[in-house]
Amino acid sequence: MAGVVIKGHFPRRRIFRVVAVNILRYLFLGAARNWIRNIGSMAPALSSMTVLLLMSGMVGLIGFALHNLEQVEAGQASLLHVYMRDDAVAADVISLMNRLQHDGRVANVTYVSKTDAFARAQRMPGLPQLAGASDSNPFPASLDVQVKNINDVAAINTLVKYNVATDPVNPTSYDQGAYQRIQAVLFGVAVAGFAFLALLGFVAITVTINSVRAAIHARRDEVTIMQLVGAPRWMVRGPFIVEGAITGGLAGAVAGLATFGLTMGGIASGSGSFTQFAPGVTMTVAAIAAAIVFTTGLSLGSGSSLVSLRRHLES
Amino acid sequence: MRPIVEFKGVTRAYGPRLALDDVDLALEPGELTFLVGPSGAGKTTLLKLINREIRPSSGEVWVDGIAAHTLKASRVAELRRRVGVVFQDYKLLPRRTAKENVAFALQVGDLRISDDEAMDRALDALEAVGLGDRGDSFPHQLSGGQQQRVAIARAMVLQPPVLIADEPTGNLDLETAWQITDLLEDIAAFGIAVLVATHNVEIVTRLQRRVLTLVQGRLVRDQPAGRTGRMAWLASS
After folding, report:
1. Which of A133, B46, B70, B176 could pair covalently with B145 via S-S, beta carbons 3.0-4.6 A apart?
2. Is A21 in Cβ contact with B108 (below 8 Å)?
3. How far apart are the C-alpha atoms of B214 and B217, rounded to whole Å?
4. What is the pLDDT of residues A185-219, one digit of tens each?
5. Could you state, in order of their start, the residue ranges of all structural domains in chain B?
6. Distance between CA atoms of A311 and A209, rounded to whole angstroms?
7. What are the residues facing B195 on neighbouring strands?
8. pLDDT tens digits along A228-253
9. How far apart are alpha carbons B5 and B91 in whole angstroms?
10. For residue B150, what are the contacts with CB-CB under 8 A and spacing of at least 6?
11. What is this model's ipTM?
């Protein structure tokens, strides 16, 4: 019998293996080889992206610390001390206390006697000397009113300051605008931080896009041939995206490690003062920040490559 | 026989200038066709439309049943695997050997092809173009004619039904140009539609194959095979 063609099927597992090997070789090994070959043109992108990511990591951590600080300040600012006059009648104090406890805007009310106020003052930095300088107890009894929403503190202050039990000279601890001033400062810092990062981001992305464009031009013939012989689009573009991801990933890894290292250095050098300056910034937070910086680097690198490819490699 | 390439009222403009103007043509499988005309007549534009490097401004381009004029960018690769392309300047990758250049086309076109299989098929293609013994040579170690043979092997290794060649003999001496033309004739003999844009009058007139003449974007003459040469005016009335 002649002329009979038998079509054999390759084992599926072998096809998968061949496809996997080819993808690995063309997409990843090819990209890595080209990245090393083009390291000169990629260096500016790598360095600018590293600086950007390092600054982002640090600004992010500072922002996180400022946010925590704001929360602490907001908590303190929503605690209103209502000072009692020394000759206040117990019934008036109880009446005021009951009235506040039944107010929906108030979370809780605590009575602090003169003795408790004196004891508390002695625990505060600088105040023990002041407390000891006087023969009598200078600290008044007070009602500590924890207001649910900081915006209601002014209204509660108005409610209590003319009460018969309240000290007419120094009725409450309310400082109008203290919290707003903190918020304004934090807002200014945040805007400046974002503007700085946006500018740096623009520079890093532009440099990366240009680096990828240079890489495309360096391999123009190869790309043209790939397109002409019918290589799928992802196969033509993939290696460039991987190259961008390598640049971004490397920059992210360096910046992430630096962010983590600097934070750990700060914690190690003086945990007490560091906690005061950067409340809530712990080793876990630093590790998360480093991971975010690394991921951002990967996304930024591959994203910039994608933008460059869309501009310079349309078939 | 169903045409493998078909143009229906194709116009292509670059700004206000018409590179191709209302062109109708059909190429049959197994047909070797020459595309002639002065520089700027629209020959390269016509070839680029077949390969979907560009889209027509109006009209339809059909290649092996695929509507190239409406083809999405994501499906262009599918069309290009059906169209082999040969250039005047060969466009070989200088850092790869002849065999690797041919195998590269195979592997980037189909990921299911292993290294060994790609190399075997690349060697077969090189043997078919008479370069079986030069597979390990780099392009700079080959003559112009040999480099063009490698380029033809690369274009044919995927066994496309259409081969387009843009001035394939433009950089070659006459003897080598004839060798390349013989090769293209052999390819057409295997049922592949071969379209060659050329300025080489001698080859066109002596070979007596179908000739399409473009002038200022218009297809002014379509001479069937065997009716070219000095007496061609008889067919163009």
Report:
1. B176
2. no
3. 6
4. 778 878 887 888 788 778 878 887 887 788 788 88
5. 93-159
6. 9
7. B33, B164
8. 888 888 888 888 899 889 999 999 99
9. 24
10. B90, B92, B98, B101, B102, B126, B129, B131, B139, B142
11. 0.81
pLDDT value at position A219?
A: 81
Q: Which two tokens stand for residue A278?
A: 């950067």
Measure the CA–CA gap between B24 and A132, rounded to whole angstroms.
107
Mutate to test the interface with B, among A229, A233, A236, A315 (most CBs of B within 10 A): A229
Give CA–CA dist B195/B218, Å, rounded: 17
**What is the residue extent of each domain of chain A?**
12-72+180-312, 85-166
Which residues from chain B sit within 8 angstroms of residue A309, using beta carbons? none
> What is the pLDDT at residue A133?
67
Q: Could you tell me which residues are beta bridge partners of residue B7? A: B25, B61
Q: What is the pLDDT of residues B160-207, one digit of tens each?
A: 999 999 999 988 888 899 999 999 999 999 999 999 999 888 888 888
Residue A230 backbone class (left: φ over 0; alpha: ψ -120 to 50; beta: rest): left
Backbone angles phi, psi at B5, to 5 degrees: -130, 130
Considering the entire predicted model, what is its pTM?
0.69
The DSSP secondary-structure symbol of B173 reads -
**Closest Cβ–Cβ partner in B85, B108, B112 for A226:** B108
CATH topology of domain A85-166: Alpha-Beta Plaits (3.30.70)
